Amino acid sequence: MKARILVVDDNALVAFELGQALESAGFEVIGPAPSVAQALTLIKERICHAAVLDINLHGETSEAVAHVLAALRIPFMTMTGYARTQQPPVFERVPHFTKPVPSAVIVAELRKMLPAA
Q: Using alpha carbons only, what angle is made at residue 77 by residues 29 and 42, rounded to the nearest 5 degrees?
């Protein structure tokens, strides 16, 4: 079974390119979700094994998504334009990548998070 990765990003091009790279690497992509509401719906409807979150989603933060993922013990990382010091506390202990980041870096981090993937 392929590991399912939730992609939460409001930039359609970034989300599309990341989704293609993840699928090429053997992951199943859930989303992309461009909003907190859509991300939370996807988490309820589909099992995901890890997530890649942009923090700023059209003026709202993905902090609520991060709290749900943390409560479910689903690993996640951020891929964002926010500096580490600008991030809400829920993101402090997760891998952080500043956009733009090569897809290969995200794939490598997901493989570290999900050794069986």
A: 40
What amino acid is encoded at 38 in this protein?
Q
Phi-psi region of 35 (alpha: psi -120 to 50; beta: other; left: phi over 0): beta
The per-residue pLDDT of the chain, averaged, comes to 94
Q: Which CATH number fits domain 4-113: 3.30.565.10, 3.40.50.2300, 3.60.15.10, 3.40.50.300?
A: 3.40.50.2300
Whole-model pTM?
A: 0.95
To the nearest 10 degrees (0 to 180), the angle between helices 36-45 and 63-71 is: 20
